[in-house]
Amino acid sequence: MKRNILYIFAGVCALILLESFANKGLGKVDGTEPGYTGSPGDTLKNCTVCHGGTAVNVQNWISSNIPSTGFVAGSTYTIRAVNTLIGHNRFGFSISPQALDGKLLGTMLVTDTVRTKLVGNNKYITYRAAGVQALDSNVWEFQWVAPTDGTKEVVFYGAFNSNVDGHKGQDVTRLSTLKVWREGFVSLKENNVLSQATIFPNPAQESISIQLSQVPSVQTEVNVLDIAGKVVQVDQFEVGQILHQINVNTLPKGVYFVQLKSGASRSIQKILVF
User: Fold this and answer.
1) What average pLDDT does range 1-12 have in this prediction?
2) Does the pLDDT at position 243 exceed 50?
3) Residue 58 domain flag
4) Fewer CB in 10 Å around end: N or C, the chain?
5) Can you tell me the distance from the alpha carbon of 134 to that of 46, in angstroms, rounded to the nearest whole number?
6) SS (H, E, C) the chain
7) Beta strands 243-247 and 207-211: pairing type?
8) Residue 31 CA: distances (Å) to CA of 3, 116, 118, 213
9) Where residue 193 falls among pLDDT bands split at 50, 70, 90?
10) pLDDT for res 91
11) Last residue in a domain, options 161, 184, 207
């Protein structure tokens, strides 16, 4: 009798453990938590927080049918997200259209309720468990209603992760953005030079170099912010300058953000000082 009771107890424990593991597994494949798009408003957090590794920036993984003349306030557009890596068969994403301070811009609408969902008070759109499996590439679509509050520029921030059969050691994280402008303000694209700036070395010990992709037409301001968002160092490019170096050897070791400001354009990147 005692042996039978032990068998029953062991079986119940096994079922509880299996259910626990299953629930954890669903939690990992059924979308991301809010706040991991790599945006400045998310303090640049992305999939690497959970999956490890280093995120790499890629272009054109977020696209739209917004015309070249810009979006019209209150109009609805289709946004497309793609995650690609040959040989991988599990793909995920998280996207949010935000201002630099993290404010949600516009309204996202789910058009594929089976494969995508909104989280974080509808501020983020991410995948569902049914939208994970694919071979070499995966695609998701949703709609976006342009803001009516006078917003001139919107950036869609996206973080993408993929792996093979869920194996953590094969996780790859990519970051991509889509910047769009309101109709009548497309000329702001000229300042897109900041979003393509390169900062090196990173991590840094003595100094960092900031290289712009093209010569800016106006002066570029450089602000170094600490993890709390406080400006701890100020510098600037001269008009016509494309490469600039600033010293960081007086800063305590830690994570900082380098913010570039040129006219109406803004850009921010994370650096590590050691």
Assistant:
1) 48
2) yes
3) yes
4) N
5) 22
6) CHHHHHHHHHHHHHHHHHHHHHHHHHHHHCCCCCCCCCCHHHCCCCCHHHHCCCCEECCCCEEECCCCCCECCCCEEEEEEEEECCCCCEEEEEEEEECCCCCECCEEECCCCCCEEEECCCCEEEECHHHCECCCEEEEEEEEECCCCCCCEEEEEEEEEEECCCCHHHCEEEEEEEEEEECCCHHHHHHHHHHHCEEECCCECCEEEEECCCCCCCCCEEEEECCCCCEEEEEECCCCCCEEEEECCCCCCEEEEEEEEECCEEEEEEEEEC
7) antiparallel
8) 43, 8, 9, 35
9) low
10) 96
11) 184
> For residue 118, what are its two tokens?
């909104």
Question: Is residue 218 a contact partner of residue 239, using CB atoms and an 8 Å limit?
Answer: yes
Residues 60 and 93 in one domain: yes
Predicted pLDDT of residue 90: 95
Give every CB contact of residue 121 below 8 A, 6+ residues apart in sequence.
34
Domain boundary among 163, 184, 205: 184
Range of the domain at 93: 31-184
Task: Give 141's pLDDT tier (boundaries 50, 70, 90).
Answer: very high
Higher per-residue pLDDT: 57 or 35: 35
